[in-house]
Amino acid sequence: MTELNILQRTFVSAMRALTKLSAGYDMGPIQEEMVRTHGYRGTLRLMKLGADITTTLARSVGDYTAQTLIGVAALWNGCRYCVIGHIYSANLHYFKESGRLGPLDEDSLIDLMYMTDEESFAVLKDTFAGPEHARTWHLIERMYQLRFRDLDPAEGEDELLKATIAYWEWLNECTIILGIDAKPGSVPALGYMRPTQELVDGYDKARRAAREAARAAAT
Amino acid sequence: MTTTAHRQPWELREEGDKIVVELRGDLDEAGARELERALAEQLRDHAPGSRVVLFDLNQLRRCNVEAREVLARIQRSLGGVARRSAWITKRPIFRGLALWICHHAPDSNARSFPSEADAERWLGSNEAREAVLERDASSWIGRVRGRLFLATEAAQ
């Protein structure tokens, strides 16, 4: 691994501070890896395009669905860090907006990644069944076709979905250094969620209760 | 020629200028080291750059931390002898593993894919992975920006 020089280290420190300020969390060694891989300009471009695509997606489909789509795109790339962090963020948005738990538990994500793409697609279809998640599911289904079936963009959000797929493939090149081993509970809510402690505590308590209820029902 | 190591979860075979490495079941450090030796042997008699390597992970079920370090070392060594490499798997967990290996090696001529057709296209091309990823992302985000700009203009 190439060591960064003093200018590069200073740049990384500034980027980390900026991310902490704007997004509320520290990306750990990821930005150092970006500088190592893409240089200064490449890193700035990567961060700028990431902010653009996240904001555009959220404006188009709402925060909860945007974070779910990003999480699913990252799931297909095999980056545990991004799938856990973005689905956690989606769940916090959903909990904040509705007071209910999102359908995809962060604890189920690694098992989902061990499945084949077709198997996990079937599980996602069941998970997002019902009118409440119809719009989100439609977009996941379109994204699946665009990613795995060479579907050409044809309707409403298709180009935005293609941009999401393509951007997270590029980003995961560097996030994979944490994404190879990340586990639920060790990744912050990614994106620009900036959850309050009250929201995090309320969500964690509700999720734990749901998991315990599911375990009790299974025995 | 096909090389299968008994009790080892891999098989090597040559198909024209392509060397196919199939990984199966549980891969541990010892199995990965055996593969490293066999692949080096297979490539020894070929001129540098005359072969491409396709790693097929579709039958792989587990790969421990020690084995993945050996796989990264294999990928690093391929950078000097193989023209290009591709990793295919339908399981995202192993696409992540392959991405980590290609990035960690590092080898810009290696990339992971869900399908063999995508991998074959990659093996026949010559662009660096990072350049392709950046170009695709920039191009699609550019199209979205263009559409939004036009929509804003139309609304005014």
Secondary-structure map:
The complex is a heterodimer of chains A (219) and B (156).
Chain A: H1 6-23, H2 30-61, H3 63-77, H4 80-98, H5 109-114, H6 117-127, H7 134-148, H8 158-179, H9 197-218
Helix pairs in contact in A: 1-2, 2-3, 2-8, 3-4, 3-7, 3-8, 7-8
Chain B: E1 2-4, E2 10-15, E3 18-27, H1 29-44, E4 51-63, H2 65-81, E5 82-88, H3 92-104, E6 110-113, H4 116-123, H5 129-155
Parallel strand pairs in B: 3-4, 4-5, 5-6
Antiparallel strand pairs in B: 1-2, 2-3
Helix pairs in contact in B: 1-2, 2-3
Structure summarized in a few sentences:
The complex is a heterodimer of chains A (219) and B (156). By secondary structure, chain A is mainly alpha-helical. Chain A has nine helices and no strands.
Quaternary structure of the protein: heterodimer
Shape of chain A: globular
Structural class of chain A: mainly alpha
Tell me the number of structural domains of chain B.
2
Question: Radius of gyration of chain B, Cα only, in angstroms?
Answer: 18 Å
Please count the beta strands of chain B (DSSP E, at least 2 residues each): 6
Percent of residues in helices of chain A comes to over 70%
Indicate the proportion of strand residues of chain B: 25-35%
Number of domains of chain A: 1
Radius of gyration of chain A: 18 Å
Q: Largest sheet of chain B, if any?
A: 6 strands, mixed
Determine the structural class of chain B based on helices, strands and strand pairing: alpha/beta
**How do the SSEs of chain A run, as a string of H and E?**
HHHHHHHHH
If you consult CATH, what is the topology of the largest domain in chain B? Transcription Regulator spoIIAA
**Count of β-strands of chain A:** 0
